[in-house]
Amino acid sequence: MACEAIALNYCYTPSPAPDSGADIAQIDDVILELVTDLPKPLKHESTPPPVFRYNAIHDLESVWWVLVWILTFNESSASTSTMPKTRQEQMNLLFDGKMGNNRRLPFFNHPNFSFFPSCFSFLQEPLTAFAQYLHNTYAEVERSFPSLNFDNTAFRQLHRNCINLFPAQLIKLAMPIKLEYVKERPQDAFVGGKREREVQSQGESAQSKKRSR
Predict the structure, then answer these.
(1) What is the dihedral of CA 109, 174, 67, 126, to 10 degrees?
(2) Do the beta carbons of residue 161 and residue 130 sit within 8 Å?
(3) Where is the sequence biased in composition, kind Basic and acidic residues (predicted)?
(4) Strand, coil or helix: what is 180?
(5) Which of 108-117, 142-151, 177-186, 202-211 has the lowest mean pLDDT?
(6) CA dihedral defined by 206, 207, 208, 213, rounded to 10 degrees?
(7) Dist. CA 130–CA 179, nearest whole Å
(8) Residue 59 and residue 108: Cα distance in Å, rounded?
């Protein structure tokens, strides 16, 4: 699921500029309180933010996450990950099974696939380009926030551009790879050494039972 869809909020809107007018208004309020009992001027209410709307960019980001999931939870018998612990940590961080997981956005903004096995190395560049293209598209659509314009024609071009990131020769390289599911699951993670301590405790308990016989 797309990060914005999880947060129900737009994540790529322009950073707000410092509101010098608000500071001046505060100073004026203080002066009015000191020198006069006249009522304070009415303040204009800010425009409420637009209601969050799901759009085609979110669909494409969801496709990106499906690809990341497949390449995180699988490897090849001929090429296993050289960083299994790092991969396990990423499983726990990104795919914890919770709908409200808000820890995906930093990874999406700065993807790092170094824990992939070497058989997937040729996919790292197009996956990174895919994410970067989506970042740019989000920023382009949301730069006029809070006034947003979703152009369906542009969205159709967006789909075509994303497909072009994975040309036929890349698909041919991927087809022969026989995926083998990685058996580790998030609940088996080495989080804070908890799982390691549990295994060690079970081993010590078994040895103690043998000695008592």
Answers:
(1) 20
(2) no
(3) 190-199
(4) strand
(5) 202-211
(6) 90
(7) 22
(8) 14
Task: Say if residues 88 and 182 touch (Cβ distance below 8 Å).
Answer: no
| C-alpha span between 38 and 67 (Å, rounded) | 64
Q: Burial, 155: exposed, middle or buried (Cβ in 10 Å; 0-12, 13-18, 19+)?
A: middle
CA 191/CA 188 separation, integer angstroms: 8
120: pLDDT confidence band, cut at 50, 70 and 90?
Answer: very high
- Name 132's Cβ contacts closer than 8 Å, sequence gap at least 6: none
Q: Which two tokens stand for residue 192?
A: 């804070």
> What angle is formed at CA 72 by the lines to CA 1 and CA 10, rounded to 5 degrees?
25
Each residue's pLDDT tens digit, 125-156:
999 999 999 999 999 989 988 888 777 777 88
Q: How wide is the angle at C-alpha 126 spanned by C-alphas 122 and 127, nearest 5°?
A: 100
